[in-house]
Amino acid sequence: MIAVAVLLGMTACSDKKQQMKDLAEISLCQSLGESTDVKILGVSEPDSTFGTSYLSPEEKKAVMATMQKVTKQIMSRTNNMVTFDPSDDYVINLAERQMRANADLRGMLFECDKKGEWNGWKVKIDYEAKGGHEMDYRAERWFFFDKEGGVIIKTIEFPLP
């Protein structure tokens, strides 16, 4: 009897986790528009959050490393800004997305540096899509859910090199 209850609890939990992943994918596709070709590269398992502004030390390290790679890509493509071409749509698009992500990241870092109480879940999706000027780009979007996992309360996006 206990084994059945545990099994049902695990099934309900895995169903809820799958629902969060599905909702994040639907939200991503809707936010990008129906005409956008979206290729999902990966979807994380739902993970606990301790505030929508809290980043674990591992997350901070990973985000900073990704942002550094994006900066290196921009600098490489522009020869350290010596040959910057304002008509290079790829560089302009990537730089704009990086600046938006940096602003969001700064806000998160200033809002909360301490781990708060558990307040929900997050799902991360890596994807490819077409942006402005029909340029292909890659990004990772984080979806923050409420405790029940049924409502997305915040998203943040980081460009991927």
Question: Which key terms come to mind for this protein?
Answer:
24% strand; alpha+beta; 5-stranded antiparallel β-sheet; single chain; 161 residues
Total number of helical segments? 3
Radius of gyration: 18 Å
Reported for the largest beta sheet, the result is:
5 strands, antiparallel
Secondary structure tally: strands:
5
Amino-to-carboxy terminus distance: 51 Å
Order of helices and strands: HEEHHEEE
Mean pLDDT: 85
What oligomeric state do these chains adopt? single chain
Residues in helices, as a percent range:
40-55%
Structural notes for this entry:
It contains three helices and five strands; from the N terminus they run αββααβββ. The chain is an alpha+beta fold and 161 residues long. It has one domain (2-160). Strands 1, 2, 3, 4 and 5 form a five-stranded antiparallel β-sheet that branches. β3 and β4 form a beta hairpin. The chain is globular, with a radius of gyration of 18 Å.
In short:
The chain is α+β, with helices and mostly antiparallel strands. It has three helices and five strands; from the N terminus they run αββααβββ. A hairpin with a 6-residue loop joins β4 and β5.
Strand-helix topology:
Blueprint (H helix, E strand, L loop, with lengths): L1 H31 L6 E5 L3 E3 L7 H21 L11 H23 L8 E11 L5 E10 L6 E9 L1
Antiparallel strand pairs: 1-3, 2-3, 3-4, 4-5
Helix pairs in contact: 2-3
